[in-house]
Structure formats: C-alpha cells, structure tokens
Amino acid sequence: MLPAASSVDQQVAAVREFNRFYTARLGLLRKRHLDGEFSLTEARILYEIGSGPRMTARELCSRLELDAGYISRLLASLTRRKLIRQVPSKMDGRERLLTLTPSGAQKLARINEQSSLQIRTFLSDLDRSRRDTLVRSLATVRVLLEGDRNPGVRIVRLRKWNDDALQLLREYYDAVSVVQRDTPEAMRRMVADSSSGFWLACLNAKPVGCVVLRRLASIPRAGECKRLYVRREARGRGIADSLMDALEEFARNQGMKWIYLDSYHDLKAAIALYRNRGYMECDRYNDNPQATIFLRKAVG
C-alpha cells in the first residue's frame, strides 16, 4: 500500500518510489523487453496486432499514444523482418490492415510465455493470501488511475430483463455466429437468479456492452462467464475489462472459487484479454459445439 502523504510533492514521491520498486522487481528497466530481441514498444505492437483483427497504424497510434512517424518506422522494421503484413483495407484504401505472419505469431507466443514465467517467478515468493491481496490491490490501482480517463462509462447489473439487453445479446450472437442461443425467457430467469448476473456497460447513458455470469451446476463453487461484447464504436476504452471487473467481484462475493469460460481460436482479442486477466487453459467442461478453447480463473 502507498504510504499516506500530506502534500502533492509527497504523494508524487511515494508513487515514484512504488514505481521504482515494481519496475526493478519485474525487470522492466532492461533495454530489451524480457531480455529478448524486441524493445518494449515493438513487443506491445505485436501484442496489439495479434489481439486486434482489424488493427491499423492509426489505431495503434491512438492506443499507444505515440507519434505516427515513430510507429511508421517500427512497422516498417517489423515488416522487413517478416513479422507483420500490411494489406490495403477494402473499406478505406488509405488505411492498411496489420496482421501477424506465422513467424510473428510464434514470436508473440514466445513473448507471452516469457512474460507469464517472469510473473510466476515473482509471485512464487508470496503465499496464496498475499497473491490475492496483490491482485486486488493492482485492480484498485487500475480503477483509481483509469477512472478519470474513461468518463461517461457506467457498469450496472440488471435487476430486470429489458430491450437494451436483448438488442446487445442479438448483436453478440450475430457478431460471433453463435449456434446455441439463449431464449429471452431463459435470460429473464437468469437475471432473476440472485446467484447469476447480467451486466450492461453504458457510455454517456447509452448501452454499449454486456457480459453474463451464471452459476455452473456441474462444478461446485464455480460460475461461467458468457456473452462478453462491446460495440465497435465503444472499443478501446477498457470497457470489456470494466465488465469483467464487475463480474469477478460479484462472483467473489457470491463465494465462488472459479470462473470458467469457453471461446474459439478466431476470437483472438477476447482470448488475449482473458489471458491478461489470469485465465488459464483447462479441460473441456461443457458440450458447446463451437468452442475450441476452455479457460478458468481462481477468484476465491
């Protein structure tokens, strides 16, 4: 926890000391990311392209808050190294869609493995209770630092099924071509169930996203995350993470130990988000015919 400070200068000094500590512990001051072949920015670019199926240079500049010329030079370098492809967009000939080559995808997988190993090594010094405390504290830090950067966003748990929720659910079904679809009546029962939940994300009072949690009858003290969806115009604001924060906090308060979810490998952005939140691969737990990957996370 950051020490209390009575002045702005003391608060800045406390945050600087906290930053020095965790960057030293995690090795973030090295010139090359994870002592590998990429700089931190190059590694982040590979990650963003790998998780964004229609990523462009303009979108990268916005997400990373970096100069367009600098991004252009890095993209040219990664292209020459045959790690990314740049293909003219059919929607806008001025834009180029960025995708990873097979070699680029392999490099990104290796970066993710090295990152997970480094974090596990760091956490190995902590017992389960302290690890849980650390995760909750980091979540609090993120909320405090990002709160003012995401104005107008509100996450609410539905108390009664409504047309906004139905419309978002239908958009989600169409976006990912869902075969097994919940009926409106089934969703009304789920919303009325005190051990389950349906969350709406609202941007300036307009519904733009949703997520569902329902208790798993087949696994004790477990719930299943379903239907995570954010409309395209609202993406890039951390709304999906905010929805997952609300869902996980609710599951924890309900005494759940695990959250399970399924997906399929084409949904790279969603899978990257889940992995970044600590979801790990597990055995198949349901009969969803479309699912190709199964993940779970300990929350209790």
In short:
Helix content is about 45%, strand content about 20%. By secondary structure, it is of the alpha+beta class.
Q: How would you characterize the overall build of this protein?
A:
There is one protein chain. The protein has 300 residues and is of the alpha+beta class. It folds into 2 domains: 31-117, Orthogonal Bundle (Arc Repressor Mutant, subunit A), CATH 1.10.10; 151-298, Aminopeptidase. Helices cover 47% and strands 19% of the residues. It has helices at residues 8-26, 40-51, 57-64, 68-80, 102-123, 128-146, 163-176, 184-192, 239-253, 268-276; strands at residues 55-56, 84-88, 96-100, 153-157, 197-203, 206-215, 222-230, 258-263, 280-281, 293-298. The strands form 2 sheets. The chain has a 7-stranded mixed sheet, sandwiched between helices. The protein starts with 7 loop residues before the first helix and ends with a strand. The model is unreliable at 1-5 (pLDDT under 50).
